[in-house]
Structures are given as structure tokens and as C-alpha cells.
Amino acid sequence: MTNNPAHQDGVTASPDRVGEKSPATDAGTKPPTTTCHIFYVSDGTAITAETVGHSLITQFGNITFVQKRLPFIDSVNKAQAAAREIRAAAGQCRPIVINTVVDEELRRIIREASGLKLDPFNGLLKQMEEYLGVSRQPVVGKAHGMSDYQSYEARINATNYALAHDDGISPNFGEADVVLLGVSRSGKTPSCLYMALQYGVKAANYPLTPEDLERFRLPENILRHKDKLFGLTIDPFRLSQIRQERRPGSAYSDIRQCRREVSDAEALFQRYGIEYLNTTHTSIEEISGKILMTLNLNKRL
Fold first, then answer.
1. 103 — phi, psi (to 5°)?
2. Topology of domain 17-132, per CATH?
3. Tell me: the pLDDT tens digits for 200-256?
4. Which helix (H) or strand (E) holds 181?
5. pTM to 2 decimal places
6. In the chain, where does the domain assigned CATH 3.40.50 lie?
């Protein structure tokens, strides 16, 4: 990554629906279905199944997916209720089921429901068993549970740190792993919280004030931690839209003000040689990943 902002087209998905209907383009391709239900079934939080599902469905932009998470399916009664709900969703497109339930009996019940069943792990686990020469030890919810209390506590502490050091509330950045800089509403707070919750990274952020931009200088307590600094920028038109939602019709959201702030902030990053990223078309996952990679913080707890 260079000091020039990275313009990338991220994939944006709403919580409930992804994609829009469009005609098939490849010869011989089956005509696209308007709507398809997809279920994420798990005996834990279903976060893993949902993450896999999101990655898959973004590859089918001509289909509208209606998503439903079915977590904590850990009894026969719950599995039967899940199977009934899946059957009820059958329509123009048979439902898709991404199933990460560990118990074989519960898996069998869910498999009996209609639709396409996708198991992201069973086949992979069998290959790992063969390669490692040992059998798996199935544990429910271990990926997103508290089985590793030290890692869990680190993520909680990092989250508390991010909240206490949001928007320059605390000027002490000695414990920070990263300090994000940017104009107001450029994506600093959600990026800090995501890195804290997902990776246990202590992320602080400092909003570039009109005084900073006018003086064309960063405060000394910020420059003291130059090796931890990373800048976020954003398209001025998008920034104006975001600010309009917060303070409609104000000077704060005026497009001319947004243009001036963004231009001055990027010039400030360039002056100090601070790496920065354009967040306009970049998801929070991508933003966080690029920050961690650039500052060599690629640690997953």
C-alpha cells in the first residue's frame, strides 16, 4: 500500500437481502431465480455458518437471498422445529442450508428437510483426521465461545480500551496498538471496535479537528506515536451524505466543507508519511484487514 488512498469496490450486503435480479449472461445458464432462502444452522451462535454463507452468496449478484440464522439448535425438538421452518420456505427456489451442527442425530434431522445442504466442515475435518492421524474431538461453540478465557478477556479489554479512547476522549495512546486518524464520520470508531472485538487489538482514534487542519500540523501527543498511526479518508460526497443524516442543512455537512476537510486531511497524511485508506467503497472487514497488515498487527486471538 502506498500513501495514495486505495479506491476499492467492496461488496455491501444488507442484514436480510443480498443482490438484485438481473438476466443470465452465460449461454446455457439456467435463468436466475428471483428469491432464494438460505438458512445458517448451528448448535452454537451460527456466526461461522453465516460468515461462510455471506462469502458464497456475494458471488451470485443476480439472485436475491433471504437469510435466516438458526442458532443454538442443540436438541431434537429444536432440530425438528428448524427442519419444519426450512421446509416451509420451499418455493420458487428450494432453500439452501449451511449446517455446522456437531451432533450427528441433529444433523440427520436437518438433512431430512428440503433443499440444498452444505456442510462447510465435515469433509474438511475428515481430511484433517486422515492427515494428522488423530480423530476429532467435537466441541460445540468452541470457535466463538469462552474456551480460551485469556483470548476472550483480551478482546473484552481491547473493546473497553477502544471505547475509552474514542474520538480523542483520552490523550494517552501509550497502550494503543494502532491510532486511527481522520475527519469526523470517516469510519474510525466502527473500525476500532471491529479490530478490538475480532482481534483483541487496542485501537484508539483521533478526529482531525478544524484547528489541526488549519495549522496543518498534528498535535505532539499524536506524533509521539507515529509508528502506530493510520489514516482514513472518504469521498467528500459520501461524507456529506453521512453528515446530513446527523446534522442536516448544517455547515458541518456542507459539501464544500467536506471537500476542504478531506483535501486537507489527505495532505496532512502525505506531509507526515502516514499510510491511509479510502473507506468509501471498502467494508469494515477490509478496512481492518488492511490496517492490521500495514502495521504488522496480523494476530487473530
1. -65, 130
2. Rossmann fold (3.40.50)
3. 999 999 999 999 999 999 999 999 999 999 999 999 999 999 999 999 999 999 999
4. strand 178-182
5. 0.68
6. 17-132, 149-294
